[in-house]
Amino acid sequence: MAVLTAITPIEYLKGVGPQKADVLKKELQIFTIGDLLQLYPFRYVDRTQFFKIRQLDASLLGAQVLGRLIRLQEVGEKRAKRLVGLLKDETGTVELVWFQQIAWLKKTLQVNAVYVMYGKPTSFNGAISITHPEMELYQPSEKKIGNQTLQPVYTSTEKLKKFNLDTKGLQKLVAQALETVLPNWEDDLPADLRQKHHLIPAREAVLGIHFPTDQKAYETASRRLKFDELFWLQLRLLRNKQLNTKKYRGHRFTQVGDHFNTFSIRDYLFHLRARRSA
Predict the structure, then answer these.
(1) 3-state secondary structure labels for all residues of 228-263
(2) 49-137 carries CATH number 2.40.50.140
(3) What residue spans define the domains of the chain?
């Protein structure tokens, strides 16, 4: 069996296949496993902190709740059509509302199932509700990478979600990619250069940017990846400069005449004005 690397086409990664590979290429420009690993999370969710429903407040930027979805129904017509759910825990209930991807959500969400819900609480008519929350089926025995203190959230689209490639689906693919190629990941920077600039190995940086164990691990991984980006950019600029210097050589003057030494910009401007006034 061939060893998969960062340059292996994405369709050969376990769990992808031709159809998902096609939509990944069109929607996110992901053609290889390496491209997938360069799809960095745009934010992280602290999965260690859970709120009870009675603790939800509109001042929270985001909240994670463990509860049971006890109701799910489609209401309204045309532009007012929406999907409304009701999440319950031992302290109360909260209304969940979706205005988009209604058909897909109706197929995937399961009434009476327990979910980990994440979203921004808002207040309307004195009641707390959450619009377009992220819903993850609660699976306590599911295998995780790291301790999941900070869980990555990835960019997705409506077309991707039709192939179960929402942020949770992309997270699983990234985890599979890391498990597949990380053992053979080669570091482009020599050890002495990493030591000089206090940089972690590339393998740790790639793992740390997707599944950081804490804020410090994220910052350390981010610093290494930013260094790489600027370092290789500078090398490309230097290379282009050298190529241009060899290709476009200026004329070399072997002798400098008397007129060069006695030339004055004042004389040049005087003669230039004289010509214009003539």
Answers:
(1) HHHHHHHHHHHHHHHHHHHHCCCCCCCCCCHHHHHC
(2) yes
(3) 10-43+152-183, 49-137, 186-247
